[in-house]
Design a protein that fits this description.
Length: 684
């Protein structure tokens, strides 16, 4: 049996004690009933593989055993493809609050291939009175208040386009807990969801206890559309609220019901959702609704409405109609379903519904905050159209407001992209337009943020413009051009780009050099074999100088110098030298030619390979004249006594075309270093 314990130290929060928790993971034997004493724990969750189920009971510290529980599949889950990769293939059980316990008995029913238990101990820490300071919100104990362990979060929050409905859950754990224990239960669920299930954070957006305390859940902002892990297929666009306890047959307490009503009323009002409305959501995929299925749901739904589960329990689910009604009567007046249609350059229509008759106003402002249009009316419906046909391109904000109502706000259009020139590069930085085919031209690249007129000029060391590369209109995005500085003398230069648009101008520059001194560094063969057989025993290096320079030539391998071939001053002209490999082992090398003139140091490199090993050659098929060659080079063969050469561009199979009857073949391979394989012969 494998034992894994992870001690989790929470991050320190300003004004709060250090929070700590313990999660123990135990792999259990699923084949026979058994018992285990893992130490003190307060919450347990089971993972298992197979179609069977697991029953278990726990013993409290005073020796009392709980009733036998059926480990039901955890139904509050992330969407497929998000967060659940570490538990793929496992069935995940509900996290059940047991209170302080020290022993568990379990038995499996049906086929259970593997069984794993997570025992969570949550420290008893005082709830710090840190409540959310959000206008109109009910009292909410923040994550800092219940000492959430921010150090274990696995990823940044991600967001939907908005909140469209609330989904009500129950945790399905014990209802026997004190008010002081509620924060410990929330912390234990966080620990199990993150360190047991491998999720990014606690799955619920909010939790409510039976005493009416409201706890902030998943990190990311209580007023933002944070995507949770509570309703597989429908997490995006929903707020998940779980009532702590089991409400299959137990009635929700009046305090919990009042807190649930006030929380949903505030959160849906913040999103301008009518609690009595229905919404259409597209499933992201779960066992009940396949991906892409459009589902009509109440704006306040139970988990069982979107997933095959009994959650939030029959008792709590039966109260949802009255909860919807209570929510609709809380916090009035309200603005529902604000919608903006149309685009700049034409009519833009603003619509919405009010919970009652009121005088409403729509205001549109430009980027400076100045009002550019407004409309007003009286009634239960908002409907006003702005003639934006003459509005300049840009970003505008809008607001629909009415007395004592939370205003709806948004934006139209897009802010003009600030003009910028970025990522200016010139390659190579030393351009050598001497006609040797190496570095004769320079490639200029840059990125333009928006359409603009761009001018590129080259200035010498004195600031004098010696060339204009281009001047014209360029679109946003990456730009490039190739330029040959044939008419520019050797020296140091500055390339400056200037972009102009909408009365604004930006500029950027980079430096480069022109130096024609060194050219045409080549070797006589890409490979040679200094083995004394008279075939490519040496390699000849050639280079040319257009100006006097001091030249160093060395050989390197893996960026380490292994041989120095030349150190000498030269006048202009062509130069040659031979190299016999200097006893170096077979392998790939780089010959470096470095020329120091009056301006700077210029280098060129040439790859070369020492190869003393002959290639291998074998027949594959005489009928089709197919051979297998170990390396590139050439194949020399005599077919019926007539010799021919076939180029071999890569190692592998080589097929030789031949018309007529083949009576006999003799062949050998020659690699790029001149090494010859043994001859192979075949006759019919």
């Amino acid at each position: 049996m494998r034992f894994l314990a992870a001690v989790l130290l929470a991050a320190a929060f300003p004004g709060s004690a250090l929070a700590a928790g313990l999660v123990q993971q135990r792999d259990l034997h699923p084949q026979a009933p058994s018992a285990l004493s893992p130490g003190v724990f307060e919450l347990v969750g089971l993972h298992w593989r197979g179609p069977g189920v697991v029953r278990y009971r726990t013993r409290s510290l005073d020796g009392r055993w709980s009733g036998w529980r059926l480990s039901a599949d955890e139904d509050a889950l992330p969407d497929r493809g998000r967060e659940a990769r570490s538990t793929r293939g496992w069935r995940i059980g509900d996290p059940v609050w047991t209170g302080a316990s020290n022993r568990i008995q379990y038995r499996t029913v049906g086929r259970v291939a593997r069984l794993r238990a997570y025992f969570v101990r949550s420290p008893r820490l005082p709830v710090t009175v840190k409540r959310a300071e959000i206008a109109g919100s009910p009292p909410i104990i923040t994550r800092a208040g219940w000492h959430a362990d921010e150090s274990i979060r696995r990823g940044a929050p991600y967001y939907a386009d908005g909140i469209h409905l609330a989904i009500v859950h129950h945790t399905a754990g014990s209802n026997s807990y004190s008010k002081a224990q509620s924060a410990s239960i929330v912390r234990a669920i966080e620990l199990y969801h993150v360190n047991g299930n491998g999720w990014n954070d606690i799955g619920y957006n909010f939790l409510v206890d039976k005493y009416g305390q409201i706890f902030e859940g998943r990190y990311g902002g209580m007023t933002k559309p944070v995507v949770g892990a509570h309703a597989m297929g429908f997490n995006s666009g929903s707020v998940g609220i779980s009532v702590i306890g089991d409400y299959g047959s137990n009635a929700i307490s009046p305090a919990a019901r009042a807190a649930l009503v006030s929380l949903i009323a505030w959160r849906l009002d913040f999103a301008h959702v009518d609690p009595l409305s229905s919404v259409v959501r597209i499933s992201a995929g779960n066992p009940r609704y396949p991906p892409g299925r459009a589902v009509t749901l109440k704006a306040i739904s139970g988990h069982r409405d979107v997933y095959p589960t009994s959650c939030p329990g029959a008792s709590l689910y039966s109260q949802l109609p009255s909860i919807r009604t209570a929510v609709s009567r809380t916090g009035l007046p309200k603005l529902y379903s604000p919608v903006v249609t149309g685009v700049l350059g034409g009519p833009v229509r603003f619509t919405g519904r009010l919970s009652g008759t009121a005088t409403w106003t729509v205001t549109v402002r430009d980027a400076t905050g100045g009002a550019v249009a407004s409309g007003t009316g009286t009634g239960a419906r908002v409907d006003w159209t702005w003639d934006a046909s003459a509005a300049p391109t840009g970003r505008y904000t809008w607001a629909i407001s009415a007395p004592q109502m939370r205003p709806a706000t948004g934006a139209i259009g897009t802010a003009p992209t600030p003009l910028s020139l970025q990522q200016l590069r010139i390659a190579p930085t030393i351009v050598s337009p001497n006609g040797d085919g190496r570095g004769d031209e320079a490639k200029v690249t840059y990125r333009l943020s928006t359409t603009a007129t761009v001018t590129a000029v080259v200035q010498d060391v004195l600031g004098k413009t010696v060339a204009t590369l281009f001047s014209g209109r360029r679109t946003a995005g990456k730009q490039d051009l190739t330029w040959s500085p044939d008419a520019i003398a050797d020296g140091w230069y500055k390339l400056t780009l200037t972009a102009s648009a909408g009365g604004k101008q930006v500029q950027t520059f980079t430096r480069f050099w022109v130096d024609r001194t060194l050219g045409a560094s080549t070797v006589s063969a890409p490979a040679f074999s200094p083995n004394g057989d008279g075939q490519l025993d040496t390699v000849r290096l050639s280079f040319s100088l257009l100006n006097a320079a001091h030249v160093d030539v060395w050989v390197q391998r893996n960026h380490q110098i292994v041989a120095t071939l030349l150190q000498q001053d030269f006048t202009p002209g062509s130069q040659r030298l031979s190299w016999d490999g200097g006893g170096l082992p077979d392998g790939r090398y780089t010959v470096v030619v470095s020329a120091v003139d009056s301006l700077l140091t210029v280098t060129q490199t040439v790859p070369v390979r020492i190869d003393r090993k002959p290639p291998s050659l074998r027949f594959v098929s005489l009928a089709s004249l197919t051979f297998r060659v170990s390396e590139p080079g050439r194949l020399v063969l005599a077919i019926n006594g007539r010799w021919r050469h076939v180029a071999v561009r890569r190692a592998g199979l080589v097929h030789v075309s031949y018309r007529g009857t083949v009576h006999g073949v003799t062949a050998y391979a020659v690699d790029l270093a001149g090494n010859k394989s043994r001859a192979v012969k075949a006759r019919r």
